[in-house]
Here is the input.
Amino acid sequence: MKSRKMIRKLIKMSIAVSSLTLLLTVSLLADSRTGTLTGKIQLTRGRKDENSIVYLKGIKGQFALPQAVAVLDQKGKRFIPHLLPVQKGQRVVFGNSDSFSHNVHLYWGRRSMFNQVQGIKGTSEWSPPRTGEYLILCDLHREMSAFALVFDHPFFAIVDHPSPGEFKIGNVPPGTYTLVVVQDVKGKLKKREQEVTVIAGQTNTVEISF
Ligand SMILES: [Cu+2]
Here is the structure.
């Protein structure tokens, strides 16, 4: 009798241990199924007082929208950030930190997509309906401009300068991709591409001079 009890106890214990092992394995798998891409971007031309952005090109799949709201502020007669990466459908908030009015006028090609006055401390919201490059102007101050780049995935990051600017893109499905660096050179978006490999469960680092 005594040994039967012992055996039952042992079986219970081993079930508990194996379910714990299973749990641990599942959570490790969840972490190790994707990788992280980090990097440094050294700007050699273009405006070093503006940000650049990086994104992965041609990545396929259905990806959830980022929880974060993308913010484009107007401050000191500048749009901040100058280049705004956004996922299609993501919430974008336009702000005004100046003590005077601005306006946000978005163009997709020649087509006006959004046009809103921004009163003092005013905000407005937008959600990009399609991917691509949007030019953003303030009709009240001709010197103000920005770009929004809209992607159908969340694998992009803002790179703040002065250089080298650093970035981090997380939860990337493993694979070999083209990483694109974008910066504004004299009002035009210039791109530089580099092949990168993301290994699951690892932080993969790149350094690019542009
Ligand atoms: Cu303005």
In short: The radius of gyration is 24 Å. Residues 74, 77, 102, 138, 140-141, 144 surround copper (II) ion (CB under 6 Å). The CA atoms of residues 102 and 118 lie 5 Å apart.
